[in-house]
Design a protein that fits this description.
The chain folds into 3 domains: 77 residues, no CATH class; 51 residues, no CATH class; 366 residues, Neuraminidase (6 Propeller). Strand 19 and strand 20 form a beta hairpin. Helix 1 runs antiparallel to helix 2. It has 540 residues and is mainly beta. It is built from 2 helices and 36 strands. The longest helix is centred in the N-terminal third of the chain and has 13 residues.
Amino acid sequence: MKLSACLALFALAGVATAKVFLVPEHYPTVQSGLLNVAHGDTLSIRYSTPNHSRTSFGCIEFNGTKIMVLPRNCEDQNMFGKPRYVEEAGFLPLYLRTTECGDCNDDERITIADATYLVAYVYRGGAAPVGQGDVNLDGAITIADAVSLVNFIYRAGRPPCAEGWIGQRQVNEPDSIFDTGPEMAMDLEGDPWIVWVGKQQTTDREEEIFYTKWEGSSWKAEGLVNIPDSLGDFRPTIAVDDSGTIFVVWHHRFLTDKLETTDIWFTTWNGSGWEEPSAVYTSLDRDDYAPIVSAGGGEVWVVWYEGALVTPVYYNVFASRWTGSTWGQPMQVSPPNNDDNWWAYVAVDDNGSPHVVYSAYRYGAVYYTMYTGSSWTTRVLLNDTTLVQGYNPAIEIDSNGGIHVVWVGIRLHPAVDYDIYYSFSSDGTNFSEPVMINVDDSSNDDGGKIAVNSPSDIWVAWDKEYSLWDTHVFVSHLDGTSWSPEHRLNNDSTMTNLGPTVKTDALGRPWVGWSGTENIQPEVYYNRYVSQPGTSPTGR
């Protein structure tokens, strides 16, 4: 095997009494007790003193149970033809050893001393961990890693560097507020923000919009997004544009001279707090519901559905574009008909174009359209309404411009059954045959949301109702070929868990939030997948 230039051997003269280890620069996994390394990997030598700095060593070849070392310059040498074993190199014997994840002080044990070692490193400028200090696999070494070690040592918690879902955790502070309907977005650093509706049980105030954000190891104390009033705010959604501005949009209830109606409101984060809320769109004679906001390609769009305050009431889908200072005049997305077009969802691609899906409630049809810059394309029907009616669609766009849609399908034959369906299109004109994601059973599956890293890395989360008050949150992963078996994310056994939201962070790992009643009243919960940096979660 021909190898490019690599660093020459560090001279070991004068250290004959020291124990020296070969330590990989990037923490490889261990398979059958052996380092999982590849030809040409760069290793370092390290003395047994933990705070000794690393020094580049050279090229290696790993072959079964032995490591072969070229101790000189290894440029253009054939490692198979001229291998020299460590013990034959004429230098101090070197020991191949993997430092176990969590053994931060390198004493070959995982104890409270390792947690103390991490605390000293994080807060007091102490020596860096010898082994992998990112034991909770969140991409950084923080006090959360020390806490994770303490939980492992004393409370039978998650083992260091264990991959998979971390388990159900609470987002907001336990209180007397009924918290429901969370939605999530990732900021430019890849950290999640969550917004939700909270209803004060101890005051006369109606529903309000709350938020929190992830701060490296825990959630920031929850705060209010809107200005509290006595009427109520519902169904918030959140998006982050290319400049890092955070938008929150919701529908707000208010009173006119004659009646109560709803409008679409929004606010933005100014770096330290929320701007005073104002209207995206106000109509005195129409109700506007369930806005969805999305950003991409330097653009921000909102879609919602609205209907006139007359009988009979028919709803249609509208959209508005952020101009940089105000919202543009609403454009009608769905055709002006009596189909009752509801539950619109939007995703903005890397070119700034909005892609919209919605359901024609009267017929159970799921439609797709996009804005070309001058008009909305002819809508495309995604489902055969004679077999499976569709509702509540969600959409995401991958980096190649591929369009991914999920929705709730109500199968009409042989019996009514709610399931989660998925379809894909590379061009917005031809969509694949819908595929059922969930297990085909007697439960009702609802509330599907989707997050897309690439065409071969897609996550869908939804809730599954087994019986009244017995609903759980599930997730499945598409690796480009097949969907993984559904995996339950909540830990409680017979409580109501509803309305999941799913996004992927800067490392491509999914976070799922939802509303649950583990403690009788609704609170906001989350679960996230952790894995070794550079590896792709499978969800299996």
